[in-house]
TrEMBL record:
Domain spans labelled Tetrahydrofolate dehydrogenase/cyclohydrolase catalytic: 7-121
Residue stretches making up the Tetrahydrofolate dehydrogenase/cyclohydrolase NAD(P)-binding domain: 141-281
Protein family (similarity comment): Belongs to the tetrahydrofolate dehydrogenase/cyclohydrolase family.
Reactions catalysed according to its record: (6R)-5,10-methenyltetrahydrofolate + H2O = (6R)-10-formyltetrahydrofolate + H(+); (6R)-5,10-methylene-5,6,7,8-tetrahydrofolate + NADP(+) = (6R)-5,10-methenyltetrahydrofolate + NADPH
Biological function: Catalyzes the oxidation of 5,10-methylenetetrahydrofolate to 5,10-methenyltetrahydrofolate and then the hydrolysis of 5,10-methenyltetrahydrofolate to 10-formyltetrahydrofolate.
Pathways per UniProt: One-carbon metabolism; tetrahydrofolate interconversion
Assigned EC number: 1.5.1.5, 3.5.4.9
Keyword entries, A-Z: Amino-acid biosynthesis, Histidine biosynthesis, Hydrolase, Methionine biosynthesis, Multifunctional enzyme, NADP, One-carbon metabolism, Oxidoreductase, Purine biosynthesis
Name the UniProt record assigns to this protein: Bifunctional protein FolD
Natural source organism: Peptostreptococcus russellii
Signal peptide: none
Matches recorded under InterPro entries: Aminoacid_DH-like_N_sf, NAD(P)-bd_dom_sf, THF_DH/CycHdrlase, THF_DH/CycHdrlase_cat_dom, THF_DH/CycHdrlase_NAD-bd_dom
GO MF entry, a single one: methylenetetrahydrofolate dehydrogenase (NADP+) activity
Any one biological process term the GO annotation gives: methionine biosynthetic process
Length: 286
C-alpha cells in the first residue's frame, strides 16, 4: 500500500538520464563534447554535497565537469572575472553558479553578467522573463522544473487543478507557480505572512511545499487523497534528513507523496543535465 503512494524520484531521474545519454552520444558523434562549469566560492558542505550529486549525474551521462572554486574571501570583481571567462569560453556550454552567493558578491550583478544561453539554472532575469512569458527557449530553475517532471512522469493532471505552493523564493516557489500556471493550473502561493494557510493548503488537490521548515506540515494541512510534493531539505533534532512534511502524520491521508530523501532532490540533477544538453545544442545551432 505504501509503495503505491510514493512518488520516487529515482524512476523520473533514470528516465530523463536515459534520454540525455542518447543526446550526449549524438553530440559527441558530431565532435561536440558537452561540458558544464560549476562556479563556487569556498567549500561549504551544502555546496559540496550538490557538487558531488551533480558531478555523478554528469558522469553517468558522459558530460564533462569543470569546477572553479574561488577563495571564500574573493572579491566581487574576482568572481565576475571568473564568470566572464566562462561566458566567453566556447568549450563551456552551461554554467552553474552555486547559491546563496558569498555575502560580498551582489546577486543582481551576477544575474546581469551570466550568459543567458549558458544559464542552465535560471539566474539571469532574461530567463526569468522567458519563464514569465512561457517562452520555452529559456531555462527554469532546476528544482522547480523537477517538480513538473515528477508530476508528468506519474501522469498526475495539472490542468484546472487547485494547487497550492507553500514558499515564494525565486529559486523554487515563484518560478514553480509560473510553470504550473503555464500548464493551466489554478495556483495559490502561500508564505509566512499568509492568513489561514492551513485552510488553503487543506483545500488543495496538489500541495507543494518549499518553505524549508522541518516537518511543519501535518495531516491538518492535507486534503484527503491529495498529491503532496515535498521540496524541503531539512534536518531534524537527531540530524536526520527530512522534508517540510511530517511524513508519518500524513501518509494515511494523502493519495500520493514524494519522500525525503529519494524524492525531488534526485530529479534536480537530471534536469540540470537535460538543460546542459539543451544549451549545448543551442550554442551549436542544432
Amino acid at each position: 500500500m505504501l509503495d503505491k503512494k510514493l512518488l520516487l524520484g529515482k524512476n523520473v531521474a533514470d528516465s530523463i538520464t536515459k534520454d540525455v545519454v542518447k543526446d550526449v552520444e549524438d553530440l559527441k558523434s558530431k565532435g561536440i563534447n558537452p561540458t558544464i562549469a560549476m562556479l563556487k566560492v569556498g567549500n561549504r558542505e551544502e555546496d559540496a554535497a550538490y557538487q558531488r550529486a551533480a558531478s555523478n549525474r554528469c558522469s553517468k551521462c558522459g558530460i564533462d565537469v569543470r569546477i572553479i572554486e574561488l577563495d571564500e574571501n574573493c572579491s566581487e570583481e574576482e568572481y565576475i572575472k571568473a564568470l566572464n571567462s566562462l561566458n566567453t569560453d566556447e568549450s563551456i556550454h552551461g554554467i552553474l553558479c552555486f547559491r546563496p552567493l558569498a555575502k560580498q558578491i551582489r546577486e543582481e550583478i551576477v544575474a546581469d553578467t551570466i550568459n543567458p544561453v549558458k544559464d542552465i539554472d535560471c539566474f539571469s532575469p532574461i530567463n526569468m522573463a522567458k519563464l514569465m512569458s512561457n517562452d520555452n527557449t529559456g531555462y527554469a530553475p532546476c528544482t522547480a522544473k523537477a517538480v513538473i517532471e515528477i508530476l508528468d512522469f506519474y501522469d498526475i493532471n495539472i490542468k484546472s487543478e487547485n494547487i497550492s505552493v507553500l514558499g515564494r523564493s525565486l529559486v523554487v516557489g515563484k518560478p514553480l507557480a509560473l510553470l504550473l500556471m503555464n500548464r493551466d493550473a489554478t495556483v495559490r502561493v502561500c508564505h509566512s505572512k499568509t492568513k489561514d494557510i492551513e485552510k488553503i493548503a487543506s483545500d488543495s488537490d496538489i500541495l507543494i511545499s518549499c518553505m524549508g521548515r522541518a516537518k511543519m506540515l501535518d495531516s491538518r494541512f492535507v486534503k484527503e487523497d491529495a498529491v503532496l510534493i515535498d521540496v524541503g531539505i531539512n534536518f531534524d533534532e537527531e540530524g536526520n534528513m527530512c522534508g517540510d512534511v511530517d511524513f508519518d502524520s500524513v501518509i494515511d491521508k494523502v493519495g500520493k507523496i514524494t519522500p525525503v530523501p529519494r524524492g525531488v532532490g534526485s530529479v534536480t540533477t537530471s534536469v540540470l543535465v537535460k538543460h546542459l544538453v539543451k544549451a549545448c545544442k543551442s550554442l551549436n545551432n542544432l
